Amino acid sequence: MTEQSIIWCVIAGIPAIAFLARAAERIISECRHRQRPGTSLFDMAREREMLFIPGDDPAKDDDADECEDI
Amino acid sequence: MNAKTYDFLADYAATLLGCGATCIRIEKNLKRLAAGCGVTAQVQIMPAHVTLSVSDGSGYSRVISRPMARGGINFDVNARLSRLSWAVADGHISADEAIKRFQEITTETGRTGQWQELLLASVANTAFCRLFGGDPASMLLVFAATLVGYRIKQVMIARGRDVRLAFLAASFFSASISAAGHVFHLGGTPEIAVGTSVLYLIPGVPYINAVSDLIDRHYLCAFGRFTDACVLTACLSAGLCAGMYLLGLYDI
Q1: DSSP states of B165-186
Q2: Residue A48: pLDDT over 80
Q3: Are B183 and A19 an interchain contact pair (Cβ–Cβ within 8 Å)?
Q4: Is pTM beyond 0.80 here?
Q5: Domain assignment present for A70
Q6: In chain A, which residue's Cα lies nearest the Cα of B183?
Q7: Of B3, B2, B50, which Cα lies nearest the Cα of B23?
Q8: What CA–CA distance (Å, rounded) separates B54 from B43?
Q9: Does the pLDDT of residue A11 top 80, yes or no?
Q10: CB B38 within 8 A of CB B48
Q11: Is B150 on the interface with A (CB under 8 A)?
């Protein structure tokens, strides 16, 4: 395989794996009848996690518990 | 003064702005609706906010401001809200009934037919590929690329990600997948596949609305919508270029 085709396979594989993982996650959570929302296998950090600025209102922060020691 | 009616008018204007209505439509609908509710309303429309000055003729007026309702462009909601204003203006329903119907319109959960939307957008983009002279192999690639890219956009926006990031990611993966024509020498028009794979992301409605607002002399909103559309276009272009660069497609 050429370098170009390898790169293409990697790029095409990322969404394929992500979609399969989401589908598997949904099937597993439905099978287990979980009451609370499941954690995602793939996710992106929230803006507040990446860009915490001292003075941000913790009441509005979903992740306030994680930021207590900052 | 009926505070509930005034809040309803403000929420109505904010929802119309959020679902992609032009400024002239917001103005006309609001004036019609306000007249049907027995008040007069003047609206100031900004790119991300609406401010209403509502008066019941007693010499006092109330100023209410609302941020634009977030929900994406939705012509169905737009049409239903317009019909609602006509129903009130024609006296078919009362103000209280209008408030109830407005809440029903705005609280219906999400858009139904997400999968139908995905499939139809993919078919439409495939038709674009054919329109520009693509062969069947390119059309198939564009169909697959649009399917993946549009789904990525749906998932990211549903999760509350920035729409610009969603456009960037969707165009990157769409362009990369459609580049299979070049990489694996599939079909005779691979460049058309790459070029048309991202057409579904073009923000046509914001551009059209910007021109409409410009004609109606709402220059601030026109400039705001035009800038928004340009930023989205830049994001999809960046995704397209990133995909082409990574795959070494410099000479398309």
Answers
A1: HHHHHHHHHHHHHHTHHHHTT-
A2: no
A3: no
A4: no
A5: no
A6: A5
A7: B50
A8: 9
A9: yes
A10: no
A11: no
Query: Domain for residue A56, yes or no?
Result: yes
**pLDDT tens, residue by residue, B187-209:** 899 999 999 999 999 999 999 99
pLDDT (tens digit, 9 = 90+) per residue, B132-190?
Answer: 999 999 999 999 999 999 999 999 988 888 999 999 999 999 999 999 999 999 989 99
Q: Is B45 helix (H, G, I), strand (E, B) or coil?
A: strand
Count structural domains, chain A.
1
In this prediction, residue A70 carries a pLDDT of 43
Task: List, in sequence order, every beta strand (DSSP E) within chain B.
Answer: 40-45, 49-55, 61-67
Taking only the tens place, the pLDDT of each residue in B10-64 is 999 999 999 999 999 999 999 999 999 889 999 999 999 999 999 888 888 889 9
Measure CB to CB from residue A11 to each of B151, B246, B248 and give the nearest one: B246
Q: Within a domain: residue A66?
A: no
pLDDT at residue number A33 = 65
Q: Which residue of B has its CA nearest to A15?
A: B148
Residue A55, min C-alpha distance to chain B (Å): 23
Nearest CA in chain B to A45: B161
| Percentage of chain B lying above the pLDDT 70 cut | 98
8 Å CB contact of A44 and B151: no
Nearest to A15 among B148, B161, B243 (CB): B148
User: What DSSP string runs through B182-202?
Assistant: HHTT-SS-HHHHHHHTTGGG-
ipTM, two decimals, is 0.76
Can you give the residue ranges of every domain in chain B?
3-107, 114-246
The verdict on residue A43 lying in a domain is yes
The range of the structural domain enclosing residue A41 comes to: 3-61
Which contiguous run of DSSP H or E holds residue B89?
Answer: helix B75-89
pLDDT in tens, B52-83: 999 888 888 889 999 998 877 888 899 999 99
Nearest residue, CB atoms, A8 vs list B161, B172, B179: B179
Q: Which residues contact B105 (CB under 8 A, 6 or more apart)?
A: B77, B80, B81, B84
